[in-house]
Design brief:
single chain, about 190 residues, alpha+beta, Aminopeptidase, eight-stranded mixed β-sheet, 5 helices, 8 strands, globular, Acetyltransferase_Butenolide, acyltransferase activity, transferring groups other than amino-acyl groups, GNAT_dom
């Protein structure tokens, strides 16, 4: 299984001038902390820089970057601007927990969030024994339909009086996953 983890640790996807990468060394730690401390990232608070770096390294962390080559530059190396994140807490074998999905509001409406989640899905599809991917969300209006549509997730439990939606999708290693590629409830 180490090969699955190694294969997912430095994956990249490209779309126009945008990059999704699972290389944790690309994250600008101070900027990630600013994002975690922003009002747009209402579900979590930042942690000290050393803890943030460890958190990103310990997870399968997906960074979204806009890459541009500055005009009049003799260097063809693109500059990368951090504009999104998703973290998958996983053992790379049977379990994954999706958290901290965020795209900068200035870049929303461009399909980057959907693309980011499809990249996450591609990564989980490489885990042949994955039993389930789970997440929690408080955004019933936008997030629940978003994850239902993109990941095939369903709400497992609806708390009384609102609260967090607990969602899951069964993976290929789940006993109720059908040979036809669909999950079934038993």
């Amino acid at each position: 299984m180490a090969s699955i983890q190694a294969g997912l640790r430095n994956r990249t996807w490209r779309k126009d001038q945008f990059l999704v990468s699972t290389d944790p060394s690309l994250f600008p730690i101070e900027r990630v902390i600013e994002v975690f401390d922003s009002k747009d990232f209402y579900w979590a608070n930042s942690v000290p820089p050393e803890a943030m770096e460890e958190m990103l390294k310990s997870s399968l962390s997906f960074g979204v970057y806009e890459q541009t080559v500055p005009e009049n530059s003799t260097d063809s190396t693109p500059e990368s601007k951090f504009i999104g994140i998703a973290r998958l807490i996983t053992d790379y074998v049977t379990f994954s927990y999706l958290t901290d999905v965020w795209v900068d509001s200035a870049y929303q409406g461009k399909g980057l969030g959907s693309w980011l989640i499809r990249c996450v899905q591609e990564a989980t599809d490489q885990m042949p024994h994955l039993r389930r991917t789970m997440l929690f969300t408080a955004d019933w209006e936008r997030s629940v339909p978003f994850y239902e549509r993109l990941l095939g997730m369903s709400v497992v439990e609806t708390p009384r009086g609102g609260g967090l939606a607990f969602m899951e999708v069964k993976g290929k290693g789940h006993p109720c996953y059908g040979s036809d590629g669909y999950s079934y409830d038993v």
